TrEMBL record:
This is Mitochondrial ribosome-associated GTPase 2. SUPFAM superfamilies: P-loop containing nucleoside triphosphate hydrolases (SSF52540). Pfam families: MMR_HSR1. The lineage of its organism: Eukaryota, Metazoa, Spiralia, Lophotrochozoa, Mollusca. Gene3D superfamilies: P-loop containing nucleotide triphosphate hydrolases. It comes from Sinanodonta woodiana (Chinese pond mussel). GO terms for molecular function: nucleotide binding.
Length: 201
């Protein structure tokens, strides 16, 4: 009836409170301390242009860049804010933003080679990831030693390689040195683990 001639008593409406949580969709996540060079690395491997500056916490929100390969495959890489020791105790920016790497196929730990005892950075980063979600640090990952062009970086690189079982990709994101091996390895991780994403994680 286009013009109904009667009306009925309506029922009481329903109320719902819905909480939405945004999680960035990316295949790989860049993990590192503030000023480790994550944003600079993302700029070097993609067309993304996150803010880069010489002070901590320049990245306040995740940025995603697309790495495009010759066969037109594209891998999304997320740059998330820097972690610091005891971030799970709400130091720095906390760890809530780690939700943006929950869906990542693999992780790329970016280590500042200009700082003495760089293996401590890696241990701290893995510990903070575990505080957020168990086994998150166990995802397939690679270690990128950044700032190889700075003094003492060669010495720190050797010490880091002696203390971990994984190869370290030594790069200078700022000068774009040795970037290609990182891209090749990223593709290997993506091809190997993309089908297993979510299985047991």
């Amino acid at each position: 009836m286009r013009a109904p001639a009667y009306a009925e008593m309506g029922a009481e409406g329903e109320k719902k409170t819905v909480y939405l949580e945004l999680k960035t969709m990316a295949h790989a996540g860049l993990i590192g301390f503030p000023n480790a060079g994550k944003s600079t690395l993302l700029r070097a491997i993609s067309r993304a242009r996150p803010k880069v500056a010489a002070y901590p916490f320049t990245t306040l929100n995740p940025h995603v860049g697309m790495v495009v390969y010759d066969d037109f495959e594209q891998i999304a890489v997320a740059d998330i804010p820097g972690l610091i020791p005891d971030a799970h105790k709400n130091r720095g920016l906390g760890i809530a933003f780690l939700r943006h790497i929950e869906r990542c196929t693999c992780l790329l730990y970016v280590i500042d080679l200009s700082v003495d005892e760089p293996w401590i950075q890696l241990d701290s980063l893995k510990f903070e990831l575990e505080q957020y979600k168990e086994r998150l640090s166990k995802r397939p990952h690679a270690v990128i030693g950044n700032k190889i062009d700075l003094p003492n970086a060669d010495k720190n690189l050797k010490e880091l390689e002696e203390r971990i079982d994984l190869p370290v990709f030594a790069v200078s994101a700022k000068k774009r040195l040795n970037i290609e091996p990182v891209l090749y390895h990223l593709r290997e991780l993506y091809d190997k683990y993309s089908q297993k994403k979510g299985a047991g994680w």
